[in-house]
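Q: What structure does this chain adopt?
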Amino acid sequence: MAKAKKNMVIVESPAKAKTIGKFLGPSFFVRSSMGHVRDLPERKLSVDVENNFTPEYKIIPSRKKLVSELLSESKKSDTVYLASDLDREGEAIAWHLLQALEVPEEKAKRVTFNEITKDAILEAFKHPGPVNMAKVNAQQTRRILDRLVGYKISPLLWKKITKGLSAGRVQSVAVRLIVEREKEIKGFKPQEYWKITAELKTATEDTEKAKDAKTFNAILQKFNNENAEIKNEQQTKDIVQELQRSEYIVADVKKQTKRNNAPPPFTTSLLQQQASTRLHFSAKKTMLIAQQLYEGIAIGTEGMVGLITYMRTDSFRISEQALTPCRKLIADKYGGNYLPERPNVHASDKKGTQGAHEAIRPTAVEYTPESIKNFLTKDQYRLYELIWNRFVASQMKPAVYAVTDVEIISGRYTFKARGRELLFDGHTLISGHEMEKDEQILPPLIKDQKLELIELLPSQHFTQPPQRFTEASLVKTLEKMGIGRPSTYAAIISTIQDRGYVKQEKRAFYATELGTLVTEKLVEHFPKIMDVKFTSHMEDELDKIEDEKIEWLGVLKEFYEPFKNDLEKAMGEMKSVKGTPAESNQICTVCGQSMVIRWGKHGKFLGCSAFPQCKNTLPLDEKGEPALPETTDQKCEKCGSAMVVKTSRHGKFLACSAYPNCKNTKSLTGETSKTEPTNEKCEKCGSPMVIRFSKKGRFLGCSAYPKCRNIKSLPTGVKCPKENCGGDLIQRRSKKGGIFFGCSKYPECDYITNELPSTTNTIEETN
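A:
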């Protein structure tokens, strides 16, 4: 009897493994690599610039045990299928797995698919191929470029400004956009102008008809056939006085029918923009939830189902297999009058678009949002509904409007009015009708018709500065300028906030003082790297590497020589802000010495001039004044001093004003903030476990401390994905300070991961 073949399949995540596993036969077994297994080590450059930029890849420490297990299983397998995502990052993961597991070329097969459905998976496994080294080289080039910029410039910033700062090839350019917008807003000088609106109605001598006459608004546009520019109140009053004595006559009426075509289906950037605008999701949150929908959601008895196609794409293309059921659904659910004769084709005007890829769409349009709502979290449902509606709307007929433009003469003045009326809703039945500014429906009007003035409405206005970037507008600008690629936008936006270079308030980005300082230094000394056109050019170069039009090593050499020269020059010429700290009028409340203004990785702050003997510090407000703690009428029960309100990364709390002599703290409600009770018992002594706080965050500690020193990490709320385990994933910290997540049942279960599996339902906005 012939021995049954053992085929090993490796994907990135447990959720994806579970969904794919149910489609393959018993001769296949699916394992997860938990993303990348190899990378450039963190503590050194790890790129040999003198030897053709050879990268020094190492197994990621938290992956060593996993790689050992995968290695053992791969050696026992007849074939190893690498089924990571179809983009550059996925291709690189597949290649690194081959290297780490030492899989022979004849034994390795690469499979790619755009959606995780049975048909797509089975078809992909019928046509395996080799790893696409052009994609790997493009990803590797990006990784090396980013490492060179980050690891070469960051130490310079530590030396010249303060420790803990960092620079990024793409992120720093994104910060520059926000910094320059900040300067535009601060330097903007508003100009006064006035608008005059006339409320009118059709004139008639019939009293009954006059009662029913519909009013409408017209806006003053011209004076003596030139654009009316009204600059002040007195000028406005003079014009109004003249207009009140004038007749109003229709000079011209133009009617036309306008079509509003269906919107294209979502690309990555469009999805991030719409999710930000409509759902108030960050780009990071949008991509995390989209990943869940792509990898699979448990849908009742059907098990794990991949609900959307791959969410990293810049293509509007829709496959024939998806168009047919979509068109049938439109005809059946909304009516044949909403279905165009031929499928809508949405062409992209962006260069570099991957035509072989598809837009983001439901894998099966039959899974309507309402039909699967009970299986989704609130946020999963909202994002899926957005994707489903956009896809179906993209294949519907245009909306049709009757548009009327009217010109009205009043003496020397010309008013204009526009009316718009919906004749056929078309795609807006699903996508929604977007109101135009001052939209109105006009009454029937004809040339030379007299109108009756109801009221003149003058209004004062001021020119406005450019709007601050939101996540949606920043993503749109990054894409338009060719900075980064859609798959990197979420990481860019998260990184520039984490570094403290920008902050987000009421969903708008503000450049911080630190972000402005770092940007100015980088623009002055690294003009090429900080140039938008050069950054866009580098992205085009990466695309050419993937398309096998240029060699990746040549791109690195072309970049590095000028960069090296700029770096050497900046080392000597960049002025340091670390010199003598600026003096202030503030006196240290701890030791009585004067306070001075220093720079830290979060910006300027007040520090005691007696440092390091006295380490007292005070934050500075936006005006550069000491942000003194808010006083309260509460007294410290330990020393009798007044309690003040302070702020930490966990929020506001009460602290003794006699700090550091008294370190008593409380929550704002008056309860001690040092611990919070839980229902969990210590497995060592049986005492209750409590939540404690440290500089590294919250953790579980035994209430019998110091007699019992048992501590544990707080559960994340995510279950361990290993089958039949049942444990919770908890945050852990490695000896080197790195964060990872491990099963609470360790050592019985040794599951670990650098990132929480994307099937978690506990994602929250963290802006």
